Amino acid sequence: MKVTYTRIFKKNFKRIKRDKKWNFIFEDEINLNGIKATRWEYVLKYCFFEDNTIPRYFNNHQIHITSDTKKMLAKRLGVSSRNISCLELHLNGQNGNCLLVYSKSDSEIVLINIGTHNQVFKSL
């Protein structure tokens, strides 16, 4: 599975990597389904690259996005905007406030944004 990202994701990812409040996402290991990895590594490597199901721990669910965002994703993924769905997962568990927003097609995952609820929904 190919994983790409938007400019917004790249900008916010750089900011978040410098924010000490997010260190546990990138540094602390968890053990899910017998796999020991950081939350970030688990989602990217095990779930996205290896195309495995995302565990319930991450509370993966669909969200609504603007038509402009849908059009951008449709163009990028080469599909109709009607076929675009946007998903959000909580990197720090069911009720957490560390979000990863993405869209998935048959061959590609686009990382759209990362941040808190407040940060993420300002741009969607």
Defining key terms:
124 residues, alpha+beta, 5-stranded mixed sheet, 5 helices, 7 strands
Ends apart, CA distance between termini = 24 Å
> Portion of residues in helices?
25-40%
The major sheet is characterized as:
5 strands, mixed
Measured by DSSP, the beta-strand proportion falls in: 25-35%
Please state the overall shape, judged from the principal axes of the Cα atoms: globular
SS-derived structural category: alpha+beta
Biggest sheet, spatial arrangement of strands = 1-7-6-5-4
What series of H and E elements makes up the topology? EHHEEHEHEEEH
Per DSSP, the total helix count is 5
Give average pLDDT, whole number.
89
Stretches with pLDDT under 50, minimum 5 residues: none
Computed CA radius of gyration, to the nearest angstrom: 14 Å
Strand tally is 7
Task: Explain the overall architecture.
By secondary structure, this protein is an alpha+beta fold. The chain is built from five helices and seven strands, in the order βααββαβαβββα. Strands 1-7-6-5-4 form a five-stranded mixed sheet. Strands 2-3 form a two-stranded antiparallel sheet. The radius of gyration is 14 Å and the shape is globular. The model has no long low-confidence stretch (mean pLDDT 89).
Can you summarize this structure?
The chain is 37% helix and 27% strand.
